[in-house]
Design goal:
- The structure holds 2 protein chains of 2 kinds.
- By secondary structure, chain A is of the alpha/beta class.
- Chain A is built from 18 helices and 9 strands.
- A 5-stranded mixed sheet of chain A has the order 6-5-9-7-8, sandwiched between helices. Chain A has a 4-stranded parallel sheet with strand order 3-2-1-4, sandwiched between helices.
- In chain A, strand 2, helix 7 and strand 3 form a beta-alpha-beta unit.
- The longest helix of chain A is centred in the C-terminal third of the chain and has 20 residues.
- Chain B is an alpha/beta fold.
- Helices cover about 25% and strands about 20% of the residues of chain B.
- The N and C termini of chain B lie far apart (about 75 Å).
- Classes of the chains: A alpha/beta, B alpha/beta.
- The interface between A and B is medium-sized, with 30 and 35 residues.
């Protein structure tokens, strides 16, 4: 088997051409699903494979599909290509390099949940990718892989792309659905969840691009095969987006169970100038910062392991921080990001991120007064547990973990730039 | 009977219907969970996070479906670990809720602290102070001091006009979206929305003209801060300085319950004046709402044109002299008549009719729309309530633009349709009801075909079936394009329809006339005859007693030599008053008590709000005094006594008296000072919800004679069909004193379809000369898509006297050199 399951264009550069993709087994899984399996059977295979959502929440994919309300029709599949987490750049590469495997995943998911229409919500900044995917969709239609009565069965499917317009919050699935419906991209009250009440109020599955790209291989090769990779908590492979103070930033497709040491030092080439590593943000700006020690570096990674560290794997946007970076600088960046991206619907996030921004700016400008740092920590904690959606909650993660785990960076030092 | 659910809130067992929101269940149990964005009349949004509480739910065994019990046999509870909003959670069996735990208190304090970081320190200059939910909830739940740095406070635009009537202060706005959701969900006009996101979010209006909704004033009642205020009350008074008088709106036939807030002030030379109008809760009439005409149209009561003393032959005289002269004039006239408009109270009408009968003269109701006899026989009966209509019921609206003619009926009908009632709209052109309410059928007909549309309802089999199968049927009829006779025919046809479909004589069923005045129905009930064309009377009568009408000012009557002895009884100086031999100065209804009968046949009391202007007197007192001089002994002091006489003399009023009309019942949602954060500033109803009259059908009604040749209304080359329409804001003499409404009233105009404008060679904004019958008028052109081709819509009461559809010629007005 080849080294790559998802980023196959790195081995097969022409795989974005339909005939090349098909030469390598492309669309056999879709045809197999539609002609020889029931939708329930497809869902079962994905469930059994243990595939978990790759967008950040890590929710078991097959389970999500099985929640679709069978009393309400039509059903929809929405691919979340809003990739906006700082430090995440994996979905982009999949769509650019291996678009058909992604689209086949969308198609199989649609068949599994009985959807005849699927939408790909693409962040507005990826306009060129949307046009590229439109071409690929047209090629699939011309080849009879999309459209009416596929493969001689009664199943019909059309896939459409839809552009966002520059809002991180539209990566939140219910805000995405609102935006897709033409309304302001703001999260809905949950429950009900999309499999009950989704697009236009109908049952909808929203899945990340990377998640869907795994699906054709699972259907083709079976759940056991998928489980043979990764860890029991997280089977399969994950694309880690590595960035920060490393020699070789980029996306790395690796099985779960890989360690940070392997990711950062073997694949990432180690820290720039070989400086000592200080902190890891495993989930982009939404991370709880990890204070790096051997335990952190050598634990096989999956969702459970990160939670044990008091953090979260999220979408595996691994940002590496070395001793040249002061954590107050880091959280000033994350606070600024969340304040800018807050949708404004709920009080704690809207007012809290605004407040945190003013506090961190003052802290960094006026010399890290202890009272101000304590206040920032208090405000961040005050936001927690009260927000309408995860954005508000996540806006506090780096702040709280940063101040608590790196207190030295929040004390005034005699000489600037000297670590500790 | 819906399924009931029992839960425990703060240790109190509460049983409520399934589907009840937790925040409402708590309120019903007397527990006030604080809210900002939640409003009991709107869908929950879960945005402000003020209502965060701790919710525990019984853990259910997935296999047995039964609650898992602990060692004490009590259901084990699962708490989410974090707080949840009470407004978005419905109750469930066995739920355990804590609304006052330490964790909840921290949450409430946090939310208030967050809100106050952006909120300006405006209390000393903010209109909302004293009735402000943010103030109240800050005192109850907020931190005593803010930890936010003052110079970090955001600065946004203040006093941003949203149209002429409402101001927005963006710094005060807490972005709760109650205003946006009220307009979008309840009214169906999404004229407000958010712009930008995050802390930069702000309310904007997206309509042209701005805040284009006749319900805009209601957003200032539900706004939980001083962000939305009215131009009328801006810097007007402090709420604790105001007294409240219960009253009924006098601007249309809905009979919205209102409150006049008054204050004695130096600014008004020590007089007690009306400072503002607020809605008064009546869930059977207007819920918590009023329209902008009712809210902002009261200034005529304080106009400088108010009559303060009686006159004879143009000079002020004493009451004795005036009444003497008037009595002489009536006594010596052989042919005389009494004409009154629907602005008067039931007590006034009763007294007038008694006088008319005594003097053997006809008592006329001056009305452009007929059919009141039919409403008397087939109107709503006691206990009826439009809120009861929903799925399985049907509502027919024919020849009436409810949005412009009776806004709160537009709202109630829309709500009934949202609840599933089948809405059938029969109208010659599109109206807002059609554009903004879910409806099942639209019947378009040509002007002149009004007599046949009801018949057509039978031919359109689906509609006929819907009507027959409807559990309840309510029919609203108006006079779109029609005059008195045609509208009476229409009413008769509608009454027939009710009978034929088996809906006559039942509660929640009936005929409603969309009268332009608050008590036209009262006149119909108390024996008045309809009349509109007064010219013949002015040519044949020797004496006329006119009460509350201005036919000269309206342009209906033209003087041509003969002049009957004219007694004009009115509140304002009008053209008719200037023509009168005797002028009797009546006081405004805000200065006395009385009752109105709404179009739903609901009799409601109104109470005096301010003292009488000058030496003006109540209409019934004037008539009684006049009667005394003519040998008729009438009650002159007590409106309550008069009402008792009415109840004794008119079977429909039997059993009613002022005490019964003052009865109220508990209403949901709760209103009043303690409930301002929950329901807004709509006032509680403590002084009467009124009663609908019984239907007493005595004898058959004579069907009206066949009406005008519709051939005259068919398209003709080179001519236009002029059609009079109602607009809520017109240039009537009782509305023009409200200066802030002048923008809404606008200039007289005619509305043409773009194709018609093109064919006639005119463009929007040009002045044209219209010639019809023996009249002509100059007016401005407006061009709108929704007008039928070949038709020119002419709003009534704008200075162009057009009582019913007529053929006209249109050309560009000569340019004034």
């Amino acid at each position: 088997m080849s080294q790559y399951l998802l980023l196959r264009h790195r081995e097969i550069p022409e795989i974005s051409r339909l005939e090349v993709y098909r030469q390598h087994g492309g669309f056999e899984a879709f045809q197999k699903a539609v002609t020889t399996m029931t939708p329930e059977q497809v869902t079962e295979v994905v469930k059994a494979s243990g595939l978990r959502g790759r967008g950040g929440a890590g929710f078991p994919t097959g389970l999500k599909w099985s929640f679709m309300d069978r009393k309400s029709w039509p059903h929809y599949v929405v691919a979340n290509a809003d990739e906006s987490e700082p430090g995440t750049f994996k979905d982009r590469e999949i769509m650019e390099g291996n678009p058909f495997q992604f689209l086949e995943g969308v198609a199989i998911a649609s068949y599994a949940v009985g959807a005849q229409r699927a939408y790909i919500y693409i962040r507005g900044e990826y306009q060129h990718i949307a046009r590229w995917l439109d071409e690929k969709i047209a090629e699939m239609e011309a080849a009879g892989l999309l459209g009416e009565k596929l493969f001689g069965t009664d199943y019909s499917l059309r896939i459409y792309t839809h552009l966002g317009a520059g809002a991180y919050i539209c990566g939140e699935e219910t805000a995405l659905l609102e935006s897709l419906e033409g309304k302001r991209g703001q999260p809905r009250v949950r429950p009900p969840f999309p499999p009950t009440f989704g697009l236009y109020g109908k049952p909808t599955v929203v899945n990340n691009v990377e998640t869907l790209t795994n699906v054709p291989l699972i259907v083709q090769n079976g759940a056991e095969w998928y489980r043979s990779m990764g860890t029991p908590d997280a089977p399969g492979v994950k694309i880690f987006s590595l960035s920060g103070r490393v020699k070789r930033p980029g996306s790395y497709e690796l099985p779960f169970g890989v360690t940070f040491r392997q990711l950062i030092y073997e694949y990432g080439g180690g820290i720039l100038d070989d400086r000592p590593i200080k902190a890891i943000m495993p989930a982009g700006a939404s991370s709880s910062l990890l204070r790096v020690d051997d335990r952190v570096l050598d634990t096989p990674l999956d969702y459970a392991a990160l939670r044990q560290f008091g953090s979260d794997l999220g979408s595996a946007s691994v940002i590496v921080i070395d001793d040249t970076v002061s954590i107050d600088w880091v959280i000033q960046k994350t606070i600024r990001f969340f304040k800018h991206e807050s949708c404004g619907k709920c009080t704690p996030c809207r007012e809290g991120t605004y407040w945190m921004k003013h506090l961190i700016d003052r802290i960094r400008k006026n010399g890290k007064e202890e009272k101000q740092v304590k206040l920032l920590l208090d405000v961040a904690r005050q936001i927690q547990g009260k927000c309408l959606c995860a954005l508000g909650e996540f806006s506090t993660m780096a702040v709280v973990s940063g101040i608590e785990r790196f207190p030295e960076d929040f004390r005034e030092t005699v000489l600037e730039g000297v670590p500790g | 009977m819906s399924k009931m659910v029992t839960l425990t809130i703060d240790g109190i067992k509460v049983t409520v219907p399934e589907g009840t929101l937790l925040v409402d269940a708590a309120r019903q149990a007397g527990i006030h969970i604080p809210v900002f964005c939640y409003h009991p009349k709107l869908e929950p949004a879960g945005m402000c996070r003020m209502c965060l509480v701790e919710i525990g739910r019984p853990m259910i065994d997935r296999n047995t479906g039964q609650p898992i019990l602990d060692e004490n046999g009590q259901p084990k509870l699962q708490f989410l670990g974090k707080l949840e909003t009470a407004c978005t959670n419905t109750v469930s069996e066995g739920m355990v809720v804590f609304t006052q735990s330490e964790k909840v208190r921290q949450g409430q304090k946090a939310t208030v602290e967050f809100l106050l970081t952006s909120h300006p320190l405006d209390c000393p200059i903010c209109d909302k102070g004293g009735e402000c939910p943010l103030q109240d909830l800050t005192m109850a739940y907020g931190p005593a001091q803010s930890r936010f740095e003052y110079e970090d406070k955001i600065h946004l635009a203040k006093h941003v006009p949203l149209g002429d009537l409402i101001y927005l202060d963006r710094e005060r706005c807490i972005l709760c979206s109650r205003c946006i959701r009220f307009q979008a969900e309840l009214v169906g006009e999404a004229v407000l929305t958010f712009d930008e996101r995050g802390r930069s979010s702000q309310i904007v209006t997206v309509s042209d003209p701005p805040f284009d909704s006749v319900f805009s004033g209601n957003t200032t009642d539900i706004c939980p801060v001083g962000a939305l205020t009215t131009a009328d009350f801006r810097f007007g008074a402090r709420p604790w300085e105001l007294k409240a008088a219960a009253s009924i709106c006098s601007q249309c036939a809905v009979g919205c319950n209102i409150v006049y807030n008054t204050r004695r002030e130096a600014r008004s030379d020590g007089r007690i004046v009306i400072k503002r109008v607020l809605p008064r809760q009546n869930e059977e009439v207007n819920d918590l709402w009023i329209c902008d005409k009712g809210r902002f149209g009261y200034h005529y009561t304080e106009s400088r044109a108010r009559l303060t003393a009686p006159r004879a032959e143009g000079r002020p005289v004493s009451w004795e002299q005036a009444l003497q002269k008037a009595a002489e004039g009536l006594r010596s006239a052989s042919q005389k008549a009494l004409i009154a408009s629907g602005r008067l109270s039931n007590e006034d009408f009763y007294t007038l009719k008694r006088l008319a009968d005594h003097l053997q003269m006809p008592a006329y109701l001056y009305t452009p729309i007929g059919g009141g006899e039919w409403v008397r026989h087939y109107g709503l009966s006691t206990g009826s309530d439009l809120s009861a209509l929903g799925k399985g019921d049907a509502i027919l609206v024919v020849a009436s633009d409810l949005y412009e003619e009776a806004p709160l009926w537009y709202l109630r009908v829309r709500q009934a349709a949202e609840r599933g009632a089948a809405l059938i709209i029969a109208h010659p052109r599109t109206t807002r009801l059609e554009r903004q309410a879910p409806h099942q059928y639209v019947l378009r007909y040509a002007y002149g075909d009004e007599g046949e549309i009801i018949e057509r309802l039978w031919r359109e089999t689906k509609i006929a079936q819907t009507l027959r199968e409807a559990r309840n049927l309510v029919i609203f009829f108006g006079n779109e394009g029609m005059g008195l006779e045609q509208s009476e025919s229409l009413a008769a046809a509608c009454a027939d329809l009710l009978v034929e479909t088996g809906h006559a004589g039942r509660i929640h069923n009936g005929l409603i006339g969309v009268w332009p005045h608050p008590n036209a129905q009262g006149a119909w009930e108390l024996g008045f005859q309809p009349i509109f064309d007064l010219q013949p009377l002015f040519e044949t009568m020797d004496a006329l007693y006119l009460v509350a009408l201005d036919p000269f000012g309206d342009g209906w009557v033209r003087q041509n030599g003969r002049k009957p002895f004219l007694i004009a009884q009115d509140i304002l100086e009008t053209a008719t008053v200037r023509q009168a031999d005797v002028v009797l100065a009546a006081c405004a209804y805000t200065e006395r008590e009385g009752t109105f009968t709404s179009g739903e046949r609901r009799v409601q009391r109104y109470y005096p709000a301010v003292p009488r202007y000058g030496d003006s007197r109540p209409d019934f007192a004037i008539t009684a005094a006049l009667g005394a001089k003519l040998g008729l002994n009438l009650e002159a002091q007590s409106a309550a006594r008069l009402f008792q006489e009415i109840a004794g003399a008119f079977p429909a009023f039997k059993g009613l008296d002022y005490a019964r009309l003052a009865e109220t019942r508990p209403q949901w949602p709760p209103t009043g000072r303690a409930n301002y954060p929950f329901s807004g500033t709509a006032q509680p109803n403590t002084q009467g919800m009124g009663k609908i009259l019984s239907v007493v059908a005595e004898g058959a009604l004579t069907p009206p004679p066949p009406t005008t040749q519709k051939e005259s209304l068919r398209p003709e080359e080179g001519t236009l069909l002029l059609v009079p329409i109602h607009r809520l804001f017109d240039a009537g003499s009782l509305l023009t004193p409200s200066a802030l409404l002048h923008g809404r009233i606008g200039a007289p105009h005619i509305i043409l379809h773009p194709k018609t404008a093109q064919e006639t060679g005119v463009t929007a904004g040009e002045k044209v000369l219209i010639e019809w019958e023996d009249r002509q008028a100059e007016t401005l052109v407006k061009v709108e898509e929704h007008v039928p081709v070949g038709v020119g819509l002419v709003p009534r009461s704008m200075g162009i006297p057009l009582s019913k559809a007529a053929r006209a010629r249109l050309h560009l007005a000569e340019r004034v050199r």
